[in-house]
Write a structure and sequence with these properties.
284 residues, eight-stranded mixed sheet, 12 helices, 46% helix, 14% strand
Amino acid sequence: MKKGLVLEGGAMRGLFTAGILDVMMESGIGFDGMVGVSAGAAFGCNYKSRQPCRAIRYNIRFARDKRYCSWQSWWKTGDLYNARFGYHIIPIRYDIFDDKAFEANPMAFYAVCTDVETGKAVYKRLDKSGHLTYDWIRASASMPFASKVIELEGKKVLDGGVADSIPLEFFEHIGYDRNIVILTQPEGYVKEHNRLMPLMRIALRKYPNMIEALDKRHLMYNRQLEYVREAEREGRCLVIRPDAKLPIGHISHDPDEMMRVYNIGREMGERKLDEMRKFLKKNI
């Protein structure tokens, strides 16, 4: 039996996930593999490096720092979340990412990106830490229009949530048969068509397959929700989701708002702790 952890994205809603992950780390819950999409990868990498509280700590510290996330950064660099500062200065200088612990942890870690030329998902396994890995994680969390296209190892990539928002099916396909899935939207959520498609068509006009994937993303996402529900009914996965819509937007510069969402996650993690332990020990 291979135990997996599947992390949806959701931009700053990902702090809900970070709260749950910190409770799990502090309680010694481990997995054979983890796959993260967008914020799920950006915050989830701290699970592999065994650094509880790191995600909430640096987000609060730099919440109002224009070097971290600002329209000034977007105007100057093409990235709302400044690539160099957020992914190559913070983890090296201000809130150090534990590269040695990341590499020593045998848990497989996959970051999901979208290939803008094909519109298909790229599942990048990241075993070695360092700047290339930081860039793959950055790419997974790089929202179209708010970020410029990133070129990595011969591919042009952006936000993994465009092609595969909840990669449970992928993880089952590669052999993970007992999965915990963390979602950032409550039960009953239905994704609607992207209202920013006119802007997306302009910004990504060189990439017709990416535009098509964005145009159909809501259909893909809603199908994946149904797949997760079916897996949950059959006992193949344990799903953890917020009880209600999280009180935060895609972007936030409010430390108190961030902490509220993080604490909602911590409370959910503590509430679900025994259920998670039983699920991971249960024979299939």
